[in-house]
Amino acid sequence: MSKQLNEFIHQLKEQLELFLSISLGIFLFVLFFQPFELEHFDFNNRLLLLAGLSGIVFLLMIFIQVVFHPTGSISTIRCIMDTQTSKGMTTT
Description:
Blueprint: H1 3-33, H2 43-68, H3 73-86
């Protein structure tokens, strides 16, 4: 693998670890401290609701990272693909 691809995988791994830890922290905070009323849900539905909230936060962070980060993963992928096509390699 090329150096750029290894760097991209390393950056992606670090970002996903950060995003997953933030989402897990939000899930546990809302579950234990209950900053808003969730009493009309039974326990299983409450867990599903909080897991969905954490999942939405996780996906939103990934979306913001990809769209608004100027040196984000999309530009890195394009750079890797351009390097491979200039060497005569195909990406299929």
